[in-house]
């Protein structure tokens, strides 16, 4: 698949089949995430792969927009390790780039995925930190829920020339 097709095919998928995500597909997601750029090449991302059904079923109680986790085969909790930062505060951008790479890799691997935000909602941060036993210096940014899409969303085109300026506002 060409890159432009991967970008156009990426959609937020919230309904999954029961087919499991293979170890090869998971590896492709994580490798893509870790290929993201980061400030000072600090690579402050940390990942928790969640495939335990009971844990996935508990997610909707702590995240109002992650109900699909309960019926998904897999989720990846993407966190920033503040102790690994070279430039404080850039962990959010670094980890967001990793999430975007993961979402694009999901399309390429024949999967669907959705980015569910955690940070900066402090109650979500607190609950995910407690649920997953995160140390204080590790902050959850997002939960990427993934699996085989129950239906394939149509490719999109969202280009809007009215949102582009050249040289100045």
TrEMBL record:
Alphabetically ordered keywords of this record: Flavoprotein, FMN, Oxidoreductase
Organism: Oleidesulfovibrio alaskensis (strain ATCC BAA-1058 / DSM 17464 / G20)
SUPFAM superfamilies, sorted: FMN-dependent nitroreductase-like (SSF55469)
Name of the protein in question: Nitroreductase
Domain Nitroreductase: 7-56, 67-147
CDD domains: nitroreductase (cd02150)
InterPro entries for the chain: Nitroreductase, Nitroreductase-like, Nitroreductase/BluB
Keyword check for Isomerase: no
Highest taxon in the source lineage: Bacteria
Molecular function terms, GO-annotated: oxidoreductase activity
